[in-house]
Design brief:
The protein has 124 residues and is mainly β. It contains no helices and 11 strands. The strands form 2 sheets. Strands 2, 4, 5, 6, 9, 10 and 11 form a 7-stranded mixed sheet that branches. A 4-stranded antiparallel sheet has the order 1-3-8-7, with no helix packed on it. Strand 7 and strand 8 form a beta hairpin.
Length: 124
Amino acid sequence: QVQLVESGGGLVQPGGSLRLSCAASGFTGHYYAMGWFRQAPGKEREGVSCISSIDGRTYYADSVKGRFTISRDNAKNTTYLQMNSLKPEDTAVYYCATGAEPLPPLTPEGYDYWGQGTQVTVSS
């Protein structure tokens, strides 16, 4: 059973930075992509970023390109989301997720396993 545990959320001022972590366990067999999603109150869950386990290719939503960076440490089975130049509109619960590749990188329906989420609040 795949399990994902996020950490690193919190309150940050506009323009600040946070790094989210997602520790994974229970992988067997397939190549698993790792994705980050977020959901703000009253809004649908949206894809933020994804990294392929096959070739390391990364994907980003237009709203975070140039500000967020996804990476993974395979030895630690941990995926990171470095978030810089944060804006109030980045406020949301952030979830990491994983699914066997190939999958649509920024579409929630492509993922099979989800973490519990971590709150990110950007406010002065």
